[in-house]
Amino acid sequence: MRGGTLSPPVTPPPPSLRARLKNAGILFKQLPGTFRLFWQASPRGAVVLGLLTLVAAVLPAGIAWVGKLIVDTVVAAAQGDTTAHTRVLGLVATEFALMVGSAVVDRGLTLTRDLLRAHLGNLLNERILQKALELELKHFEDSDTYDKMQNARREANARPLSLVMQAFSIVRNVITLSTYAVLLVSLSPWSVLVLLAASIPAFIAEARLAAEGFRLYSWRAPEGRKLNYLEWILTRDSTVKEVKLFGLGPLVLGRYRTLFQKFFAEDRALARKRMAWGLGLGLLSLAAFYGCYLFVASRAAAGNISVGDMVLYLSVFRQGQAAFQGILTSVGSMYEDALFMSNLFAYLDIPTVGETPRVLPALSPPRGPGNAIELRDVSFRYAGKDAWALRNVSLTLKPGQKLALVGENGAGKSTLVKLLLRMYEPTEGKVLYGGVDTAAMDVGDLRGRFGAVFQDFVRYQFNVAENIGLGHVAALEDRPRIHRAAEQGGANTVIETLPGQYDTMLGGWFEKGQELSSGQWQKLAVSRAFMRDDAEVLILDEPTASIDAEAEHALFERFQALAADRIAIVISHRFSTVRMADQIAVLHNGTVQELGSHDELMALDGRYAHLFRLQARGYQ
C-alpha cells in the first residue's frame, strides 16, 4: 500500500506491574465512551439490564440464609421440636421460590444480553461504515489506518458488549460479596481477609495474560491481512485463471498453511500459559477454602456454632470466593476489552477533510461549463515517501479544452487526477477551480462537478441499470437517463444481448448473476461516467483499455460531442486516442516534460514523438 508502513497499530504493554496498572487506568477511560454507545444502542435494554443485575446480586445471599435456616430447623425437629416440621415446609417453599426467581432473572439477563448484542453490534458497524465513508483515499492507502479499521471491524460485535457486561458483572459481584461479607464477619472476621488474599494472585495473572493476548492479536493485524489475501487468491473468480494456469495453488496454500501454523503456535503458547496459571491459582484457592472448611468444621464439632451456621459459612465462603475472583477476572477482562476499544475509538477519531477546521469558508464558483482549472506549481509527495510523485506542475485548462496525459507508469498521471478530485491535498502549490482554491471548496460540491471513469473501475454485483445509474445516485430510478448514458457509453449493444436487459443481475457473487467480459464491464463503467450529463469536467482514465478499435473510435466520437463545451481529461497509452486532444501533456518523473498539440509535439521531435513512432511501428 502506498504511503504507509507495516508498523504495529499499538504500543506493547509496559513490562512492570506498576506501569501496567498505570496504563490500565488510562485505558479505562474508554469506559465512558463505551457506555454512551451502549445507552445509544438501547436505553430500555440498559435499564432492564441494570434492574435484573441488581436483583440477581441480592438473591444468592437470601438463598444461602434460607438454606441455613432449613438446616437448623431440621436439626431442631430431630431433637424433638414439634413445630419445626411445619417451619421446614415453609422454608423449603421459600427457597424454591427464590430459586425460581433466580432462574427467571438469569434467563432474563441472557435474553437482554443477546438483544443488546444485536443492537450494539449494528450501531457500531454502522458507525464504522459511516466513518469509512468519511475517510479519504490517503487513509485507505495507508496500512496503519487500514489495520485500525480491520481491528475495529473484527471486535465490533463482541468487545463493546463484553466491556459493559463485565462492568455490570463487577457491580453484581460487589453487591453479592457485600451481603456475604456481612454474614462472614458475624462468624469469622479473618476469613474475609483469607478470601481476599487467596484471589489477588488470580487478578495479577489475568491482567498480565490479557495484555499479552491483546498484543498478540493486535500485532498480527498486518499478517492477518496477508492470511486473508492468500485465501482471497484461492477463492476469487478474478484470480482463478492464473492460479490454474501457473499452478499457483500449492505455493499459495503452503504460505497460507505456514502463516496459520505460526498463529496457531502463538495461540497455543498463550493457552498453555493460561492453563498453567489457572491450575496453580485454582489449587491455591482450593487450599484456602479447605483450610477454612477445617476450621469451621472443628468449631461445629465443638458445639461453638450450629450445623446451619457451618453450612452457611461454607456456602458463603465458597460462593464469596467465586464472587471475588469473578470481580478480579472481570477487571482483567475489562482491561483487555478496553485495549481493543482504544483501537475502535482511535479509528473513529481519525480526522477527515469534513472534520478538519479550515480558515477559509467553503466557496463555490457558479455552476456551469464556464469554469477553468488551473494548477499552480503543484507538487505532491505520498506520506512516507522521499520521491516526488508530482513536481512543480503548472497547467491551465479552459472550458471546452481537451487535455491528454501520457507517460510511463508511475509518471504521475493518476496522481494528478486524484489532486483534481481532492482525493489528496497538494504538498505544495494550489489547484484552482473557477478561480477558487479547491482546498476552500466543499468536497461534495467539487466532486459533483466531475464525471469520471477510472482504469480500476468497480464491477458492482448489482443489476445493469444500477451499474450505470450509480454514476448519479439521485437519478438511480431515472430509466430514460440511464438509457441515454448506456447509448453514449456504448453499452446499449451489450445490454440488448442480456436475458433481462437492464434488470439483469451482473457478476458471479449472487444467484442468477450474469458475468461479462472485461470490455463489456468497461462499457458499463464509461456509461456510468456519462450519467453525469451535467458534469463540468469529464475524466477518462484508460477508458478503452479493454475494448476493440472500432468501439474505441465510436466512443470518442460520442465523447467529443458530449464534452463539446466542457473540460475533458483523457489518460491513455493509445496514441490514436491521445492525438484527438487539443493539448497533450507528457509527464516524466512527475514533471511536465512536454506540452502541446499532437502536431506541435511531433514537430518538437522529443519524447512524445519517440513514443508515438515506437507505438506506430507496432501496427505496421
TrEMBL record:
GO terms for cellular component: plasma membrane. The chain crosses the membrane at residues 46-67, 87-105, 276-296. Residues 47-336 form the ABC transmembrane type-1 domain. The keyword Transit peptide does not apply. It comes from the Bacteria. SMART domains: AAA. It holds the Pfam family ABC_tran. It is found in: Cell membrane. Residues 373-614 form the ABC transporter domain. Keywords: ATP-binding, Cell membrane, Membrane, Nucleotide-binding, Transmembrane, Transmembrane helix, Transport. PANTHER family: ATP-BINDING CASSETTE SUB-FAMILY B MEMBER 10, MITOCHONDRIAL, ATP-DEPENDENT PERMEASE MDL1, MITOCHONDRIAL. This is ABC transporter ATP-binding protein.
